[in-house]
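Hi Y.,

Following your request, here is the sequence exactly as I used it, all 86 residues.
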Amino acid sequence: VLKLIEEVTHPRVQFTQFSFQSKDGSVSMNGLTDGYVSFGQQVIALEANGSMHDLHVSNISLNKKGQVAFNIIFKVDQSVYQKYGP
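Below is the corresponding structure, written out as tokens. Let me know if you'd prefer a different format.
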């Protein structure tokens, strides 16, 4: 799952917290980026990926450094385990 996320992460986005539940394929991540443009591009990249679904974005805010902070929750298909497996 980390390999998939690495492939779809925007160069200006940093994920600061990550949680994965293999039982149901749910992923939760907190992220930071330098602006709303890169934030939007990141959301589009995740939505466009066919292996991710049920995408929910929440807690969008500007932090004290002027960065856009956000939380993203989604599920990954079981096929990801086979494609990116050992």
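The helical segments are 2-8, 36-48, 79-83.

Thanks again,
Q.
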